[in-house]
């Protein structure tokens, strides 16, 4: 305020532009002129006079650059006789003639579309039609999520919610073979461009043929039904249920859709986020024929298998019930972030996660991406010293896992262990780009072939396995290489009773190995490197059907065999040394006795 | 109030039309229209108007800086980058950031100028070192340092940095020279600006060694090796460092090769109709899980537990800290922590001195300590007799409550008196276990005695009969 005053006292005209308008007095002639214009203006627009605003108000709000222009226009219309030649005036003319709203709307619309009043011809109609179709197509292609959410939103508000929920639920149920239930129909909220479903219930259980229908209901009802379902099931087993069954409740699912993916046969889902999942995954009904192979149940890739680009999970906790009467235990995932999740590479994509942390039967596990070979030794050497030529990509780590998760139904040393726990660290690696250490990689792969040969003896080759393999053994990108460190803590082992099908295991070594395991009070470290063909992961769901478990068993056996061999050599040496010392002492004793005597 | 001389003349409205109709080129028309828009006349600008334009120009820039600090800076970098040599810009940038945070020296290893990625400024290969010798020494190398800046924050004295993302950090945090002052000086005093605040910290794939107080290469104090696989903390205030750390949304990593995880505690119930509200009054319970870790790393062999020689401890705790309500007030004034501690393979020996708290108070008398030690050793013997491979003590469960105000200006666990509180509770719970164990033992002995007594009686009885 002080600044204002001082400027004014210097005689500089300070009042800003906006002030002038109010401070300048309007003379009577001006007012009357404006009033006249105003009334004319309204008359030409066919307004009744009582619609117009109070005069004083209109004076206050006059802005010379906008309203006066209109006033001028209306002035011109009045003063100059309407010329038929200009289309603009024709429109105004038509507008003036009409007297109800719908007609005016019609005229304006036609004017926008055609700039005349003649009826539409075939050309026009086809143009409109193609424009509509194209516009929608573009909308679909560009923003599938927006499009779908718009449709869902419109349907949700316009039609009964029941119907929408039923249709959508039926759609998903039919396409996935799962029962899907949304509480309170669906509430797609736009959270960062995603469609979100709240309070879902997803279930896969054996169903009677006619029951294969989506049901809408509250989540609580669905849970109650799932809980009571088991008894009914036993009476009429129509579906044998020989698959993984589950009942899961999900607090929130956020998805985004993409048609370009759908067209390319990669499923319509683009990004998925799952929050707050609870429930049970029931594998108790799963059973195998004696000669069956886990590989027979691998996924066979077909177009439309989902390939999710950015998969996230938070706060997941489910009870896993394994077959063969294994105790049920909890699996929780605190958070999980996968860059890609493909149905056909499900297990492999989980192994290559950006970040997963959780607990498996109360043992913490993590999977995370990393950049360095060694965490701490590099602090001194500097992060650039890569002595091996390998780049570690992902580290999987499990701490203090009860060993029974690894050895139920398994042959080999793992299977002989009766109690204890296991720490595992697996580093999935790729060769360093710049300095490919050819010899090492080749020898690693050659090594793996020897084991492959041993494995081939136990696992009958799959029938339709193509024979032309190994011709690209130098293409490292086709191999999966993992460094595995296993630490067996406080383990105890027992000699297996049935040793008839001890596949790769040399019968003679069982007892020494079991003896070795039991002789260790603290822990047994095992380090090994597993080389696998990437093809093994094609369509695999679990650690078993990718044969990773078998590879691990072989490596563990080899490590044990080595240990035992070393141990035997060492005990022999110890015995000899011990005997020698005893001899020396005895001789000394004798000599001294002789001296006394 | 003198009305200004330049009032709207009656023919002003027409002037524009007239001028427009007289104009020939589109440029002229543009000039007329824009002049009309700006000053509603067609005359040269006067000083007032030019100064108004100028101030508007400046103001809009300031507004822009305030509203979109990150965008502004990244455009600035981009501009500088295209004008000057990269090395120079890198150096200047480092100097500038050092100026903003005077306690650090920040270098850019390859003098790579930051890039702009997902709305964040991305520095590659950064080296951070501390300048002054206040005890804390940092020597960190970062693969990526991503920042967003906020003028609004800086204006409110909360530091200019808004969000931070750190990828691939390695380094050493050296606290070995740090001496605890007797005047109760906290580590927070090391920071110049105690109001510093980050509205998001993300750390991915990072490893660092912490050299604890009094660490030298000779003595057997172990350095702490921290690995952080992923860490997300929604809000960090220097003043409330420890409290904000307890509120982390998720941290996973390892300490000395034992995994740990901080996450939202999971309830086992399905998310049916706001069940969360029914379960507990706390909006969020943070769970910390620490896999077996050597007791000396945990600081459990210090003065509070001078009788523990070796062993491992497995810790789970649930932290219930008050949440900020919508009106800014806290829902309660207390932080509640539930503990479950399981000791494994514990070795104990009689100490010379009594266990003390950090400020020299006696925790437990040697007389009371004696049964605890014999309990531990007896249990050890029992498990050895049973040929058990590992020896676990029953887990200790207790709860501690602390006023939230006491956590202000506290940045490490050792500064808070948590360890004293915890050790006090551990002793109480342990004495309970010992008591139960003794009763159990006595019952066993009585049973044994009565058995032998009965058999003797029988023998005597038979002898009398004969």
Structure description:
With 597 residues, chain A is of the alpha+beta class. Among the domains of chain A are: 2-75, no CATH class; 370-569, no CATH class. Helix content of chain A is 42%, strand content 23%. Chain A has helices at 2-9, 17-23, 28-44, 55-60, 67-79, 87-97, 101-114, 122-142, 144-158, 161-176, 219-235, 259-263, 346-351, 378-381, 404-407, 413-416, 438-458, 510-519, 548-596; strands at 179-182, 189-191, 194-204, 245-257, 269-282, 307-308, 310-321, 329-338, 341-342, 355-360, 363-369, 390-402, 417-431, 479-493, 523-533. In chain A, strands 1, 2, 3, 4, 5, 7, 8, 10, 11, 12, 13, 14 and 15 form a 13-stranded mixed sheet that branches. In chain A, strands 6-9 form a two-stranded antiparallel sheet. In chain A, a hairpin with a 7-residue loop joins strand 7 and strand 8 (329-338). Chain A is elongated and about 150 Å long. Chain B has helices spanning 12-22, 26-39, 47-67, 69-83, 86-100, 151-155, 241-246, 275-279, 295-298, 366-385, 418-465, and strands spanning 104-108, 115-117, 120-130, 137-149, 161-174, 197-198, 201-211, 224-233, 236-237, 250-255, 258-264, 286-294, 308-320, 334-348, 396-403. With 466 residues, chain B is an alpha+beta fold. The N and C termini of chain B lie far apart (138 Å). The longest helix of chain B has 48 residues, at 418-465. In chain B, helix 3 (47-67) packs across helix 4 and helix 10 (366-385) packs across helix 11. Classes of the chains: A alpha+beta (597), B alpha+beta (466). At the A-B interface, helix 2, helix 11, strand 4, strand 5 and strand 8 of A face helix 1, helix 2, helix 3, strand 5 and strand 7 of B. Chain B: It is found in: Mitochondrion inner membrane. Chain B: Keywords: Membrane, Mitochondrion, Mitochondrion inner membrane, Transit peptide, Transmembrane, Transmembrane helix. Chain B: Involved in the organization of the mitochondrial membranes and the global structure of the mitochondria. Also required for mitochondrial distribution and mobility as well as for the maintenance of mitochondrial DNA nucleoids structures.
């Amino acid at each position: 305020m002080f600044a204002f005053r001082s400027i004014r006292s210097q005689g500089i005209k300070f009042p800003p532009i906006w002030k002038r308008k109010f401070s300048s007095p309007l003379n009577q002639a001006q007012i009357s002129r404006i009033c006249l214009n105003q009334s004319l203006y309204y008359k030409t627009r066919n307004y009744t006079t009582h619609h117009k605003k109070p005069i004083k108000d209109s004076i206050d709000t006059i802005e010379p650059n906008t309203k006066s222009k209109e006033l001028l226009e209306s002035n011109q219309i009045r003063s100059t006789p309407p010329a038929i030649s200009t289309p603009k005036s024709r429109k105004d003319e038509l507008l003036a003639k009409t007297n109800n709203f719908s007609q005016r709307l019609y005229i304006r619309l036609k004017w926008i579309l055609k700039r005349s009043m003649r009826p539409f011809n075939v050309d026009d109609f086809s143009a409109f039609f193609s424009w509509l179709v194209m516009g929608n197509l573009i909308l679909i292609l560009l923003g599938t999520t927006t499009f779908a959410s718009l449709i869902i939103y419109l349907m949700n508000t316009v039609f009964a919610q029941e119907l929408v929920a039923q249709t959508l639920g039926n759609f998903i149920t039919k396409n996935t073979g799962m029962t899907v239930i949304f509480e309170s129909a669906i509430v797609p909220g736009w959270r960062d461009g995603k469609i979100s479903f709240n309070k879902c219930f997803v279930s896969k259980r054996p169903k009677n043929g006619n029951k294969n229908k989506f049901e809408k209901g509250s989540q609580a009802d669905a849970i109650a039904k799932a809980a009571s379902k088991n008894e009914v099931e036993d009476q009429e087993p129509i579906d044998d249920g020989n698959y993984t069954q589950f009942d899961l409740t999900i607090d929130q699912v956020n998805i985004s859709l993409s048609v370009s993916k759908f067209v390319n046969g990669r499923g319509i889902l683009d990004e998925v986020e799952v929050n707050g999942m609870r429930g049970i995954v029931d594998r108790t009904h799963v059973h195998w024929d004696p000669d069956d192979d886990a590989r027979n149940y691998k996924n066979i890739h077909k177009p439309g298998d989902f390939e999710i680009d950015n998969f996230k999970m938070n706060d997941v906790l489910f009870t896993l019930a394994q077959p063969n009467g294994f105790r049920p235990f909890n699996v929780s995932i605190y958070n999980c972030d996968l860059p890609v999740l493909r149905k056909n590479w499900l297990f492999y994509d989980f192994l290559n996660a950006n970040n997963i942390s959780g607990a498996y039967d109360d043992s913490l596990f993590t999977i995370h991406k990393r950049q360095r070979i060694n965490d701490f030794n590099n602090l001194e050497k500097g992060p650039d010293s890569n002595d091996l030529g390998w780049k570690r990509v992902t580290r999987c780590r499990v701490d203090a896992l009860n060993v029974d998760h690894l050895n139920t139904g398994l042959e080999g040393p793992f299977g002989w262990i009766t109690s204890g726990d296991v720490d595992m660290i697996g580093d999935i690696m790729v060769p360093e780009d710049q300095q490919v250490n050819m010899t090492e990689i080749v020898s690693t792969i050659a090594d793996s072939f020897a084991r492959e040969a041993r494995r081939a003896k136990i696992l009958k080759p799959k029938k339709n396995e193509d024979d032309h393999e190994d011709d690209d053994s130098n293409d490292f990108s086709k191999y999966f290489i993992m460094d595995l460190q296993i630490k067996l803590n406080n383990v105890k082992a027992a000699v297996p009773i049935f040793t008839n099908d001890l596949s790769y295991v040399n019968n003679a070594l069982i007892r020494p190995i079991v003896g070795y395991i039991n002789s260790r009070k603290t822990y047994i470290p095992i380090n090994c490197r597993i080389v696998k063909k990437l093809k093994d992961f094609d369509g695999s769901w679990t650690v078993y059907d990718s044969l990773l478990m078998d590879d691990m068993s072989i490596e563990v056996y080899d490590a044990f065999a080595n240990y035992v061999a070393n141990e035997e050599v060492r005990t022999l040496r110890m015995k000899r040394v011990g005997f020698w010392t005893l001899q020396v002492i005895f001789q000394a004793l004798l000599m001294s006795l002789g001296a006394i005597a | 109030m003198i009305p200004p001389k330049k009032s709207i003349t009656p023919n002003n409205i027409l002037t524009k039309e007239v001028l427009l109709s007289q104009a020939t080129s589109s440029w002229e028309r543009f000039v007329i229209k824009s002049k009309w828009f700006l000053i509603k006349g067609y005359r040269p600008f006067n000083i007032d108007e030019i100064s108004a334009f100028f101030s508007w120009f400046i103001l809009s820039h300031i507004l822009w800086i305030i509203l979109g600090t990150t965008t502004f800076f990244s455009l600035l970098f981009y501009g500088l980058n295209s004008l000057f040599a990269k090395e120079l810009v890198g150096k200047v940038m480092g100097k500038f950031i050092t100026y903003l945070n005077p306690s650090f020296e920040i270098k850019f290893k390859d003098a790579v100028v930051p890039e702009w990625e997902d709305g964040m400024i991305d520095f590659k290969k950064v080296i951070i070192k501390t300048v002054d010798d206040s005890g804390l020494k940092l020597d960190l190398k970062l693969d990526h340092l991503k920042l967003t800046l906020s003028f609004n924050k800086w204006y409110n004295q909360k530091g200019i940095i808004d969000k931070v993302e750190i990828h691939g950090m390695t380094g050493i945090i050296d606290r070995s020279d740090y001496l605890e002052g007797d005047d109760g000086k906290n580590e927070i005093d090391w920071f110049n600006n105690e109001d510093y605040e980050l509205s998001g910290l993300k750390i991915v794939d990072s490893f660092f060694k912490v050299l604890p107080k009094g660490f030298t290469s000779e003595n057997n104090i172990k350095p702490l090796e921290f690995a952080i696989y992923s860490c997300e903390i929604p809000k960090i205030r220097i003043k409330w460092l420890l409290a904000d750390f307890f509120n982390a949304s998720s941290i996973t990593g390892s300490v000395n090769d034992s995994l740990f995880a901080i996450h939202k505690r999971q309830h086992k119930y399905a998310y049916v109709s706001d069940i969360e509200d029914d379960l507990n009054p706390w909006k969020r319970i943070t769970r910390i899980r620490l896999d077996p870790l050597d007791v000396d790393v945990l600081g459990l062999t210090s003065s509070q537990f001078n009788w523990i020689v070796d062993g491992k401890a497995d810790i789970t705790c649930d932290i219930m800290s008050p949440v900020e309500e919508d009106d800014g007030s806290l829902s309660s004034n207390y932080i509640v922590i539930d503990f479950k501690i399981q000791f494994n393979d514990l070795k104990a020996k009689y100490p010379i001195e009594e266990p003390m708290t950090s400020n020299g108070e006696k925790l437990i008398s040697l007389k009371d300590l004696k049964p605890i030690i014999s309990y531990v050793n007896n249990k050890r013997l029992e498990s050895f007799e049973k040929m058990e491979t590992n020896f676990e003590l029953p887990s200790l469960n207790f709860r501690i409550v602390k006023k939230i105000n006491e956590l202000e200006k506290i940045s490490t666990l050792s500064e808070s008196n948590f360890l004293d509180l915890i050790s006090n509770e551990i002793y109480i719970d342990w004495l309970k276990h010992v008591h139960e164990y003794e009763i159990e033992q006595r019952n066993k002995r009585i049973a044994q005695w009565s058995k032998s007594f009965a058999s003797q009686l029988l023998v005597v009885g038979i002898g009398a009969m004969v």
